[in-house]
Amino acid sequence: MSGVRQIARRRLLGDGLTLFGALALGCLLFLGLFGPWLPLGDPLRIAAGPRLGAPSAQFLFGTDELGRDFLPRVVQGIRSTFLLSAIAVAITAVIGTLLGLAAGYLGRHTDQMIARGADILFAFPALVAGLLVAAVMGPGQASAITVISIATLPLFIRVVRSVTLGVAGRGFVTAAEVAGASTLRVMLVHLLPNVMGAVMVQLTYALSIGMIIESALSFLGLGVQPPDASLGSLLRQGSAYLTIAPWMVLTSGAVLSLAIMSVNLVGDAVRDALEPLKGRPLT
Amino acid sequence: MTARAQEPLVDIADLVIGYDTGTRQVRALDGASLQVFDDETLAIVGESGSGKTTLGMAAGRLLPPEAQLLGGRINVSGVDVTSADDAALRRLRHDRLGFVFQNPTAALDPTMRIGRQVALAMGGRPGPEAIAELLSRAELNEPQRIMRAFPHELSGGMAQRVVIAMAIARQPHLLIADEPTASLDASIREKVMATLGRLRAESGASLVILSHDLRLIARHADRVAVMYGGRIVELGPVVQVMQAPAHPYTNALLAAAAGNEAPGERLRPIPGTPPVLEARCEACAYAPRCALRQPRCEAERPEARRLAGREVVCHRAEAVIGAEQPTRQEAR
Amino acid sequence: MRLIAYLLPRILAALITLFGVSVLVFLSLRLLPGGYADILLGPFVTPEARALIAQRYGLDQPLVVQYMRWVWAMLGGDFGVSMVTQRPVIAELLRRAPVTLQLALIALTLALVVGYPLGVLSGVRAASRRRKRDFGRVVGAMGASVPDFVLGSVLIFVFSVWSLWFRVGGYVPFGTDPVGNLRTMLLPGLTLSVFGVALILRTTRDTVLRVMTEPHITAAVARGATPGAIIRCHILRNAAIPVVTVVATYFGFLLGGAVIVEVLFSVPGVGLYIFNGLLNRDYAIVQGGVLLAAVVFITINMLADVLYALIDPRVGAAR
């Protein structure tokens, strides 16, 4: 048992990069979750400071064109970017996992239909799909969630389907079938635990994709609408004043990149822990 | 056994190799010693897990990185394999060694035509005639057609002949074949073994065959080494060892193998499983499965000693060799 | 023969996917509250105009008939007319396609030239040292984490302060002024390529790691081949096979999805055109553009399957 824990610690935290990612993710999640109750100032208060004021001891991230303190706005942005992507990815993961299980286990027509459906969704480049969805649903958070789902659903379906195909022929599944377990029971009790590892890995990647999509849509003005802020919409706001007040783009861009990177680094570590490295030197 | 005055081609002494599994270290070799001489065929026989593949691959330092050398030395053709630098090792493999693997199809690059792979193994820029000639020596008919084929288009037997041709391409001094026929159909095993033996005899190289199948190997080897628990437990000329085993494990292997059983007699599987060692074994590793064990076997590590024309690692060797198939009778 | 047996089901699947995509696009714009006429003409429309549209698009017919007419018109090259400019959408899209293609080619070339060799190197090093963490990991994580519009904004900021040689905006066709064209196109190309570098690097790295555990590599080592020769003769080709698929997906994404970089750098390509169409509520453009992007994506992926079959001799042999 201590050996297992030792491996987990070494694999997950053994290197500085992963540790950095985990710490950054922890800090950002803390800010995102508890930001509204932290004494950071009101993100919506106009003329809290000078207009387009450069970063200072009082306003660490500077102020925007309405004199709002930019730091609490970035914290609010972290909150909505994480929250929106997490909600979208969580919903998508559940649907995608169930569809993938059904495709891999039921096979034949069900498999064909679900696989083709995944192909169809996959054929839309994410932002192009975003434009179509925005045209149909109008800009806003619902559009952003829809686009993230369209982009990440095929990932879950494909991965879960292929893992299920590999597991479905194994002895314990056949044994459950022979013992008279219902199709649903086989899928949820016997197959689901076996695909969870793959789902966990996809979850982190999908979350990073979701955050990119959400911020990209907000950057284009199709996602989160003012006065709410997401990291993407703050970038949009800042890019109008890029040359005279670059701190808005630089701070929100840096925080967004950091957020996505921390998710990616933690995802890599999860994957490494699940798939140990094999390999040999060439000499 | 005739005395050999010559320098051995391979000299492995008290080799200890462990695998780091992340949580613990497992010993694959627990003090294995072995010599291979010029122009002979030596068979190393044991169950999977006995350490025979580790021993064979160690001769070319081809073990995966998690394998760790814990003691002993390996000398192949005058090169100290454990301490040689990469270039020297590469020269040794390139000029003196040839390997034949268990799964021939996997040992060939799936994206490259056979002709080109054989040419790479030959080195230089051999013409198509030279390649075809080499393939013919490995008893492949229609070498022209095979040169144009991809590995997946060949049968297992054909692929193994290609691998054998590649292994002898540069006239190695030592051929190491790891279960060369295990993945092949039973009907062609004998033929592939015969080809391997013929090519060895023609070139004057030595051949080490690793196998679990004592009876198949016996017909093609001069000497046999039986491995158990990471050690060579019995080593001697094939005829002596097969006719009168001095180690109970050799006996058990013979009893478990199909071949010369009397009509109505049953093949006897070996009860129990091979040991997994985490440290030097301070007893006889076979004792838990042995019908002849005595308190001494569980208390004292047996050392190699000469007995009746072979080396054996067993406290009870005299009893084994003296009794007429003792394990069989006791088992009944 | 083997090739046909392998490709035929794939072509069939691509056609089915194409059909599904067209149905989705068709339905998404037809089933809206307000109806298609409102979308095309806006809410302040006269009944006469509404009747004209209804007749032209067959809006009084059952949906299936409408869909058939719609597809038939598309196949004939009629993607509708831009409400703003009154010009055929297809002509406008095709006019802008070369710009997007050039941008995609720049990004793809950069991504391949940087990503593939680094991926091979990083994979070989990681496998040799048995360590997963190395420069490839860091570059991969960073490249996949900085969104293109963040990187693009920073680049625009940097080059607006120190102009150096690059220009933002002011696109000129390559044929008219090659140097001027590159001055405006290299920055957006570079911006787009960063994600590609990370994607190709990571894929190549993973594949190399996997290929290096295969027995034929051990066999080559056992023959005394040098690391350089093993990489050249065995690893490069074997590792290229899965990379082809990823490159195709990336290229398809570039051709259809370079919206944000085109908007950011004012590159007058297809993406910017669709985006402006959306802002102007010119839905015929959105519809045509989305459909075109999806068609291109599916086609590229099918071509990748062909390439795959050509590189990997095993393809289609198993069945």
Description:
The complex is a heterotrimer of chains A (283), B (332) and C (319). Chain A is mainly α. Helices cover 72% and strands 0% of the residues of chain A. Chain A has helices at residues 2-13, 16-34, 70-106, 108-122, 126-137, 141-168, 171-178, 183-219, 231-239, 247-274. The radius of gyration of chain A is 22 Å and the shape is elongated. The mean pLDDT of chain A is 83. In chain B, the strands form 2 sheets. An 8-stranded mixed beta sheet of chain B has the order 6-7-8-3-9-10-12-11, sandwiched between helices. Chain B is globular and about 65 Å long. Chain B is α/β, with parallel strands linked by helices. In chain C, helix 5 packs across helix 8 (178-211). Chain C has helices at 2-30, 35-41, 47-56, 63-75, 89-129, 135-143, 148-161, 178-211, 215-222, 227-257, 259-264, 270-279, 283-311. Classes of the chains: A mainly alpha (283), B alpha/beta (332), C mainly alpha (319). The B-C interface holds B 60, 62, 65-66, 90-95, 97-99, 101, 103, 106-112, 120-121, 150, 152-153, 163, 166 and C 130, 214-216, 218-226, 229, 233-234, 237-238, 241, 311-314, 317.
Question: At CATH's second level, what is the architecture of the largest domain in chain C?
Answer: Orthogonal Bundle
Helix content of chain C: over 70%
Give the class of chain C from helix and strand content and strand pairing.
mainly alpha
Net shape of chain C: globular
Low-confidence stretches of chain A: none
CATH superfamily of chain A: MetI-like
N/C terminus separation of chain A: 36 Å
Nearest-integer average pLDDT of chain A: 83
The CATH C-level name of the largest domain in chain C is Mainly Alpha
Q: Work out the count of structural domains of chain C.
A: 2
**Largest interface: pair, residues per side:** A-C, 53 and 66 residues
CATH class of chain A: Mainly Alpha
Tell the overall outline of chain A: elongated
Query: What's the oligomerization state?
Result: heterotrimer
Classify the helix fraction of chain A into a percent range: over 70%
Kindly state the number of beta strands of chain A. 0
Number of domains of chain A: 1
User: What order do the SSEs of chain A take from the amino end to the carboxyl end, as H and E?
Assistant: HHHHHHHHHH
Give a quick set of tags describing it.
heterotrimer; B: 332 residues; alpha/beta; Rossmann fold; 2 domains; eight-stranded mixed sheet; disordered C terminus; C: mainly alpha; MetI-like fold; 13 helices; 76% helix; globular
